[in-house]
Amino acid sequence: MTAAAPAAAGDATSGGLPFRLVATDLDGTLLRSDGSVSPRTRDALAAATEAGAAHLVVTGRAVPWTRHILDDLGYRGLAVCGQGAQVYDAGEHRLLTSVTLDRRLAGVALAKIEAETGPLYLAASRDGLDGDVLVGPGYALTGSLPGTPFTDASDLWSAPLNKIYIQHPTLTDDELADVARRAAGGFVSVTMAGAGIVELLPLGLSKATGLSLAARRLGVKAADTIAFGDMPNDIPMFAWSARGVAMANAHESLKAVADEVTASNEDDGIAAVLERLLA
């Protein structure tokens, strides 16, 4: 999955694909539930890059939770990680840009949210190529992702952070995200990236932030971009791109703003769209 150099500015790809950049989320979109990418999807992305388009991974995962996946996929292009906070060169294993959370504002935001919800379960992603994910008491990590337990709240604030994860014992993810936005939306951005994954981000940050930075490095514009995703955190990416394609398994809020709904991540939804466009 080496990203090809995009076609000349203002042109469709040489193979007739009407987009010069294919931006794909990872979990629930490019990856199947077992963490793999199907041969059909690999072939479709290869055909798109051979036609002159660039493939760009845009994920909510920070770099430490992403780079092993990219290495396993043989991906060598740029990747947008951490909900847009990080632009990562997978071929050189180098972090190109990184945006950190104002920890003072984040502390105020948490206090305002907990005033509405009661105590939250917390985790936090530290900045950098090797930044730990700190996991507090009660917080449930999804899947087998690695985390470093903490019990002293001061540990949460002792180094620069990209984001804070919050969970609640009774509120649903949608309910928690809604409360967090109402209580603290003036201090942090709030997004939902998956089941059990509600995040507090630097104010104004979204996947569109990192996508626009990476696209500029590739010499590609929003009008040249098709984006694939499955969760509410992909809404800004869809708004920035010329075309947004939601997976069949996507959250209803993303389907509502998508230009198209394709098959699920398990049924090669990305490939189905790219094959049609290339044909």
Can you offer a commentary on this structure?
It is a single chain. By secondary structure, the chain is α/β, with parallel strands linked by helices. The chain has helices at residues 39-50, 67-73, 103-117, 173-184, 207-218, 235-240, 252-257, 269-278, and strands at 21-24, 54-58, 78-81, 86-89, 94-98, 121-126, 133-135, 148-149, 161-167, 188-194, 197-202, 225-229, 243-246, 260-261. The chain has an eight-stranded mixed sheet. Strands 8-7-6-9-11-10 form a six-stranded mixed sheet. Helix 3 packs across helix 4 (173-184). The radius of gyration is 18 Å and the shape is globular.
Give structural attributes:
single chain, 279 residues, alpha/beta, 8-stranded mixed β-sheet, 8 helices
| Alpha-beta classification | alpha/beta
Largest pleated sheet: 8 strands, mixed
Q: Helical stretch count?
A: 8
**Termini separation:** 21 Å
SSE order: EHEHEEEHEEEEHEEHEHEHEH
- Overall shape: it is globular
Query: What does the radius of gyration come to?
Result: 18 Å
Helix content: 25-40%
What is the number of E strands?
14
Strand arrangement across the biggest beta sheet: 5-4-3-2-1-12-13-14
Poorly predicted parts: none
Mean of the pLDDT scores? 93
**Beta-strand residue percentage:** 15-25%
